[in-house]
Amino acid sequence: MGEMAVPEPDTAVVIPAKDEADRIGATVTAALKLPGVDLVVVVDDGSSDETGRVARAAGARVVRHSRNRGKAAAMESGAEAVRLLDEDHPRHLLFLDADLGETAAAALPLIAPVRAGEADLTIARFATRVKLGGHGIVVRLARDGIKRLTGWEATQPLNGQRCLTRAAFEAARPLAHGFGVETGMTVDLLRKGFRVVEVEVEMAHRATGTDWRSQLHRAKQLRDVGLALAAREPAVDQARAALRPPRR
Q1: Is this model's pTM higher than 0.85 or not?
Q2: Is 69 exposed, middle or buried (0-12, 13-18, 19+ CB in 10 A)?
Q3: Which of 7, 60, 154, 220 is most deeply packed, by most CB within 10 A?
């Protein structure tokens, strides 16, 4: 048997990062080794450590926010940076968390269905689940909300490891605020008829702990996911449509 052909570069990795100097180097290094990936953009979202410098040293292009603007804004900035570097053929976008470290190398199964034209958006389902400090309240809120609004049941609705076509990304804009971005993206794309599939991967990131910072993080997640779902309720959609000025 001959060697497996390496695909032509067609995918860019976007990594939102805040204060991840300890792990971002390994994450970038692993991402750059993914077949078909020729660009890694790290969005340094107002870090107070050396995240940007370490990412650049590892081979990433770095976009810096002077202040923390949140995950959705970082994803938008990263995607825009990729668009400016795209030539005739828009790259697929693979979003990865900054703390994946070496396990980012296991992201290829997320790219493959998009590359083959079999899916417009893939969402990671981690084969090995880390024990979380919380109680799954935010996950249940997101899962139940997505199912209520679209009929589709997600296993890990908040998973930030996802690959999508440029067309799907544009269709999902404007992205939901902050930590509501994954939930909002999933609902919007399903409603617009895009093909969304979950893919099992052997990846892992740092578990959220139980200290006050972790509890605050979960509170922000709960707020943002709730807002993303509320904004997509049919009654809210109808009210928005009624308030739009008529086209001339």
Answers
A1: yes
A2: middle
A3: 60
